[in-house]
Fold this protein.
Amino acid sequence: MRGRNSTHIRINVVFFIYICTLNNIIFNYYGT
């Protein structure tokens, strides 16, 4: 259960970073 939880958290972190990067790209694209 602990390993499963840690994997879930890891996926959430990767997803969060992906969304942040996507937001930055979109913001830069529309910023110019």
In short: Residues 1-32 form one domain. The chain has a mean pLDDT of 88. The helical segments are 2-31. The chain has one domain: 1-32.
